[in-house]
Write a structure and sequence with these properties.
Elements (H helix, E strand, L loop, with lengths): L1 H20 L5 H12 L17 E3 L5 E5 L23 E3 L21 E3 L6 E2 L13 E3 L4 E5 L12 E3 L4 E4 L13 E3 L4 E2 L15 E3 L21 E3 L6 E2 L13 E3 L4 E4 L13 E3 L4 E4 L13 E3 L4 E4 L13 E3 L4 E2 L15 E3 L6 E3 L12 E3 L4 E4 L12 E3 L4 E5 L12 E3 L4 E4 L13 E3 L4 E5 L12 E3 L4 E3 L26 H10 L32 H12 L7 E4 L3 E7 L5 E7 L7 H15 L9 E6 L4 E6 L6 H6 L1 H6 L2 H20 L15 E3 L5 E3 L4 H4 L29 H17 L4 H8 L22 H17 L10 H10 L20
Parallel strand pairs: 2-3, 3-4, 4-6, 5-7, 6-8, 7-9, 8-10, 9-11, 10-12, 12-13, 13-15, 14-16, 15-17, 16-18, 17-19, 18-20, 19-21, 20-22, 21-23, 23-25, 24-26, 25-27, 26-28, 27-29, 28-30, 29-31, 30-32, 31-33, 32-34
Antiparallel strand pairs: 1-2, 35-36, 36-37, 37-39, 38-39, 40-41
Helix pairs in contact: 8-10, 8-12, 8-13, 10-12
Length: 856
Amino acid sequence: MAVYLATIIVIIIIALELAKSSPLSSISLSAEVKALLNSGWWGNNYSRNYCEFANITCNEAGSVIQIDLSYEFLKNKKLEDLNWSSLPNLERLDFRRSDLTGGIPDEIGTLSNLTYLNLSCNNIVGDLPLTLGNLTKLAHLSISNNHISGSIPIGIGNLKSLVVLDISNNNFTGPIPSSIGHLTNLTYLWLCSNQLIGSIPTELGNLLNLVDMNMGFNSLTGSIPLSIGHLTNLAYLRLCSNQLSGSIPIGIGNLRSLVVLDISNNNFTGPIPPCIGYLTNLTSLYLHSNQFSGSIPQEIGSLVNLVEMNMGLNKLHGPIPLEIGHFTYLTLLDLSHNLLKGQIPSSLCQLKELNSLNLSANQINGAIPPKLGDLPMLGYLDLSSNKLSGEILTIKSNYTIQYLDLSQNQLSGPLPNDLEKQSYLMHLGLSSNCLSGTIPSGLAYYPRLVYLNLSHNDLSGEIPSSLRSFQLGRSIDLSYNALDGQIPHRPQNACPNKKKNIVMLTLVISLPITVLLASLGFVLFSQSKAKKNQSVARVVNSGDMCSIWNYDGKIAYEDIIMATNDFDNRYCIGTGGYGSIYKAQLPSGKVFALKKLHGFEAEDPTIDRSFRNEVQMLTNIRHRNIVKLYGFCLHKRCMFLVYEYMERGSLFCALRIDTEAIELGWTLRVNIVKAIAHALSYLHHDCIPPVVHRDISSKNILLNSELDAFVSDFGIARLLHLNSSNRTVIAGTYGYIAPEHAFSMVVTEKSDAYSFGVVALETMMGRHPGELLSSLASQSATNIMLTDVLDPRLPPPTNPVVVGDIAFVVTVAFACVGSEPRSRPTMQHVSQQFLSRRKTLATPLRAISLLQVSTP
């Protein structure tokens, strides 16, 4: 009898367990599986346990609590396909960038347990359903980058649990509802890039936990409410590109946590309040394109953490405060188009990290401080349209200067010969001054110079014959001088002018070059200068140059001196932020590329040992898409690295020379992007320890004779900062640096992912994508088709395989340039996608919109 009862008990227990594990064991669970299968998203296999479906998570009772279809391709799928009322236990829905269409159904409001809803980066249209206000447990709501229209429903104020609210980049109209002020748990509020009107509600001052508020790119009017001064936890305040007016409220000085303040492109008036000086954590201050008046307050000198400051296009007057010289981290300073007077303060010469200085269109007088030319990182200098006098400044040992404009001043004297040393110079404007003497012949040998204007001066003598190297696509203006000689080569339809005393030559800049100058005007180098060291490092003598570790330092140095004629400019094939690159052919016949590092000599034995250990590790890196680093030579006079030589130079140059760009067809460009992805995946995930490149740009992608792509300069940024923490030094090239580095110096693999995305877009577009990324942020690119942004020098592809490859590259690129680092894919994931993706795309290129392949 006891055995019989025990058997019955066991059977009952087993039955209960089976009932518990079966998803079809109750009416409610049957409704869930029916809702999922009827949607057609997971097929129609009723025999499978739907908790095992891809992208679905169930609780212990077998009820669906999460659906994550982010980054999936749900073509022609709509939210209406699912019966949401049959999924009452859902807690998390993630459909970001899954190509959803249609609207948001009212039934979403029945998901009373929902805490996370992300529908960003889709093609969703229509209004927000009023039932959304029923989701009182919702903590995260992101519907950005869609086509949602109508007004923001007042009921959104019922979502008292919200921590994140992002409705940016849509078509919302009407005012901002004051009920948002009820969401006191909010830390993240993004309403930017819509068509919102009206004033900023005073009630937003109740959001005491708010860390990030972005209302830029709307049509908001009125003034900044005084209640904003209550938001003492606010770190990012962006109100740019609206129609706001009035003055900056004094309460802004209470926001001591602010890191970024951007109120540019509005109609603000009055003086800049001295209380701005209380915001000592600021790294970015953008007040440009307003109507601010008065002088720049001296209190601004307290902002010692500033990295970028732009006050251009206002009505500011008075002198430039001496205190700006305290900003030791400053990389960008723009005070252009104001009414500033006085002299350029010599304290600006202390800004060793400064990349861009624009003081143009003011009333500044006096001489240019001589030491301004000593700034080691200066890449953009515009002092045009002032009243400056004296001679042109001498730019010493600055190999990064790209843009130099001193036109429309009262400068006198000869053109300095040291300008010939600036081999990276692209734009040189010296017109409308009182310059005299002859034109240095070396000006024509700048490999990247595309704009030269020396007009309206008192120059004399022969026009250097070397200027004939300027060809179509570059601009030269030598008019209104007293020059003799043959004018440089011009296109056949140019009209000759044989006058002796006035030689005029203006070659029209082609559109690609204009775009290049616009996008590269701020392409600057933001690497810190390496500390000088001087100590001879020696390595063991027993081999050939292919393994420089086997060379004695003295012998290696002598071989290099002989091969490059003591680093003569004739052997220089390029210059970057870290050093100049030389081509060296050794007696053995082997050719190498030598990177001679600027401002780095051996002195400190500790740094010497660390440097050698680091390079030793880097020489062990082996990948078919990474330039081989053979080693280094450390000498008391200089230090250089020895690389494999790449015959076709950089991707940057190839994309900017028409004949070479046309040679890079679509398939080659896709392969280039694929090679970069594989190389970065190897550095991040296969190297021990992982290597973060920190300076991915088109200038560091090299091409061999077969146009295969190779990543160069890996680890160089780290090499030059061995005595610095990742949190205090940020390396990279302006235009490729991830946006989070405006307020954080922590470099990760996601920093490289962002730079990769920029390079991938640049490869497909044939130019830097800066304007495109800006237009996406402002929602102006909604109706642009993909074919409209591809390189126009190549015929549009028609092959379905090629079309699919291009669409895939652009899709991956946009995923990588997302503003949130965590949302960017790893380079390992990108590399694997290249290996496993589908090979064809049925949709013709002309039918693919930019919004379909874009992501924040």
